[in-house]
Amino acid sequence: MGLFGDLDDTIYQDKDVLKEDYQPDEILEREAEIEEYKHALSDAVFGRTPDNVFLFGKAGVGKTAVTNYVLTELQAEVDQRDTADDVHISRVNCNNESVYSIVRTLINNLIPPSGDRFPAKGPSKADAFERLYREMERVGGTHFFVFDEIDHLSDPDSLLYEFPRARANGYLEDARVGIIGISNNYTFRNTLSSKVKSTLMEQEISFSTYDATELSTILEHRAERAFVDGACDPSAIQACAAFAAKDDGSARQAIDLLLGAGDNAEKNGDDLVTADHVEAIHESVSRGQLKDKIADQTMHCQLVLEALALHQRDTGDTARTKQVMNRYQSVARDHNVDPLTTLESIRGHLDDLNMLGFLLRTEENRGQGGGRSYRWEVDMDIETVIDVRESIDSTPT
Ligand SMILES: Nc1ncnc2c1ncn2[C@@H]1O[C@H](COP(=O)(O)OP(=O)(O)OP(=O)(O)O)[C@@H](O)[C@H]1O
Ligand SMILES: [Mg+2]
Fold this sequence. Notes:
Elements lengths: L30 H11 L11 E5 L5 H18 L6 E7 L5 H12 L14 H15 L2 E7 L7 H5 L15 E8 L10 H7 L2 E5 L4 H15 L7 H14 L3 H17 L7 H21 L3 H17 L3 E2 H14 L8 H13 L3 E7 L6 E7 L3 H12 L4
Parallel strand pairs: 1-4, 1-5, 2-3, 3-4
Antiparallel strand pairs: 6-8, 7-8
Helix pairs in contact: 1-2, 3-4, 7-8, 7-9, 8-9, 8-10, 9-10, 10-14, 11-12, 11-13, 11-14, 12-13
Bound molecules: adenosine-5'-triphosphate and magnesium ion.
Magnesium ion (MG) binds next to α2.
């Protein structure tokens, strides 16, 4: 038998269903948001300008999935109504893009395959907008532009200001435009000019994080397609839903966990995926994330964190800055690193770690004339931090 000869696809029926790029044919637990969305876009069915829509919500809560679903449904409806105007949809991810490159993408999506692409360099931004309007007019109908991760743009006003005025300013006569902006940054709206805000945020739909029950429903539906009958135990689904709900309420994380658990079961030759498989990989997934996060910090920052964790382990108590400093100096020497010598530098690193979410800081009032001082506490499992620091240290760099 060859190397791969012993492999048996025992648990998966369609593993792709658990992959990131899978587009679900059914969206669950988002009825209210879908209804709002439908209402905002419905004018497009009758050849009227639709509302512009902005979606907000944390990572993995279904903004992209719901948008794809709603627009696909709209397209299908328009296609089958003889009287309806055409609908054209362009999706752009704004991450690492300039306004010019985004407009260029929109133009190129409209130019027929035989036509010349709009150049990457040369024309001005105004030239690009003018060309875009020309192409939109040539094609006609209603154009939906979906701008995902729109908060990553350095100058969103200059992209968004234009579109709502294109008809009033005579650039568009036949064609219409609907803007859909997606962001997981709620403060983003405050960075926009008030004119852009009033014209573009006609409909704001906010997506909350999922709770464990909602995640279970989504997972059950996926598991039914992904696994062969009876290969996924309900306990596995409950475990994934519980972990993901406790972390960030993200459906993406929940689905990732289920995929990891399935692979874990397969690797062990088990033909039933259970909560044990989820637990086994959840640990390593979150450990891996923590290790990356700690390893990203500077050497002294890591040593300060390790010192505080060791102090807490040995004394069972939080630490003053001075106590962290003492422990840090011995830890640094153990690692053959020249320690920093001022209290200010240690406090600076503690402040940084606090801001990054590694630590908690409480203020302590030390009585009359004693002034204020701080106590520090690691805001993570200290044993894990100590283990992770050890493993980083023994990894050759
Ligand atoms: N209500 C839902 N029903 C079915 N699947 C869902 C639902 N919500 C999310 N998903 C699935 O979870 C994953 C993450 O969802 P999605 O990509 O839409 O999140 P997002 O809000 O766009 O996140 P990000 O801000 O990171 O782009 C996808 O695989 C998606 O298909
Ligand atoms: Mg998305």
